[in-house]
Amino acid sequence: MRLYEDSKNHVIELTRSQHAVPALDFVFSQPVFNSAKFKDGSKIPDSTGRRILKLFAENGLLKVVREQSGRRPAVYAFAELLNITEGRKLF
Question: What pLDDT shows up at residue 91?
Answer without folding.
Answer: 73
